[in-house]
Amino acid sequence: MAAVVAAPAGPVESELDRSGTEEDPREAVSEEEGCPQQQAGAPSSASHNRLAKLPLSRIKTLMKADPDVTLASQDSVFIIAKATELFVETIAKDALVYAQQGKRKTLQRKDLDNAIDAIDEFAFLEGTLD
Asked: What pLDDT, on the 0 to 100 scale, is given for residue 48?
């Protein structure tokens, strides 16, 4: 049984770049992940390994270190990995603002401290770097 997929005759808006030229849809890259888009028939566990930047086996080990966790599915490990990546990205971007105010390109501990103190979302981290 063969599946037939119809391709649009003309360029779709998302396939046009800012200059108005067509992009090759086979070379399309997801803006969020920076990875090639998955094929329709790709297994989900293989795509999880490719999309996660952190080592999933290490995250699973850390999750199982909690005595309340007995089993951790691959999907739950992947979700925790992505949440961790997003958290680190967010706090690093916020700390970068303070580094740039000091005319530096390298993040320092004081930049993280300033971001934690200034942003309410990071209030739970106060005192953790002491």
From this structure: 61
pTM for the model stands at: 0.59
Closest CA to 82 of 126, 35, 42: 35
Helix/strand/coil for 29: strand
Q: Where are the alpha helices (DSSP H) in the chain?
A: 44-51, 56-64, 74-101, 109-118
- Model confidence pLDDT, tens digit, residues 3-40: 444 444 444 444 344 444 444 443 444 444 444 444 44
The DSSP-derived string for 60-91 is HHHHHTSTT-----HHHHHHHHHHHHHHHHHH
Residue 3: HSE in the Cβ half-sphere, 13 Å Cα cutoff? 4
Q: Is the pLDDT of residue 49 over 70?
A: no
CA atoms of 95 and 79, how far apart (whole Å): 24
Cα dist. 116→27, 55, 81 in Å? 39, 26, 22
What's the token pair of residue 16? Answer: 């046009």
- Is the dihedral angle over the CA atoms 19, 25, 27, 28 positive or is it negative? positive
